[in-house]
């Protein structure tokens, strides 16, 4: 039986554990401390971080990034819960559209209502993020989702 889990906002004290989790999933960590208006959420049980998701805000648009769940806790719906919490909190603060880049999770995000987006349609602010400029290859699929009524 899985212990009780909870999702909370990430704190600076989580940075080392989050960076280790992201690195183990092959995701970029170079700009975690310096990303533009970066927020994170962690899912934990018994004081251990099982998963993380991040958001880099650019006005009413935001970059969903850094979604990872520890390998031994995958296939339990934790990633879906993290995305739902991020979307809820993002919409609550006026974010209308989420954008992401992925090399491995296109099918997962499609199931959650994201669609492939043309990179040229992404705002210039988002394109200036390290994620778009240097951290993700041009082969990464760009996806987006409008939150709520838009």
Descriptors:
single chain; 150 residues; alpha+beta; Aminopeptidase; seven-stranded mixed sheet; globular
Number of H- or I-type helical stretches: 5
How would you state the average pLDDT, rounded? 87
Q: Mind telling me the C-alpha Rg?
A: 14 Å
Largest sheet: number of strands, sense, barrel closure: 7 strands, mixed
In angstroms, what separates the terminal alpha carbons? 40 Å
How would you characterize the overall build of this protein?
This protein has a single domain (6-146), classed as 3-Layer(aba) Sandwich (Aminopeptidase). It is α+β, with helices and mostly antiparallel strands. It has helices spanning 15-24, 78-92, 106-111, 124-127, 130-135, and strands spanning 6-9, 38-45, 48-58, 61-69, 97-102, 115-116, 141-146. The mean pLDDT is 87. A 7-stranded mixed β-sheet has the order 1-2-3-4-5-7-6, sandwiched between helices. It contains 5 helices and 7 strands, in the order E-H-E-E-E-H-E-H-E-H-H-E.
Overview in brief:
The chain is an alpha+beta fold and 150 residues long. The protein has one domain: 3-Layer(aba) Sandwich (Aminopeptidase), CATH 3.40.630. It is 27% helix and 31% strand.
Secondary structure blueprint with pairings:
Layout: E1 6-9, H1 15-24, E2 38-45, E3 48-58, E4 61-69, H2 78-92, E5 97-102, H3 106-111, E6 115-116, H4 124-127, H5 130-135, E7 141-146
Parallel strand pairs: 4-5
Antiparallel strand pairs: 1-2, 2-3, 3-4, 5-7, 6-7
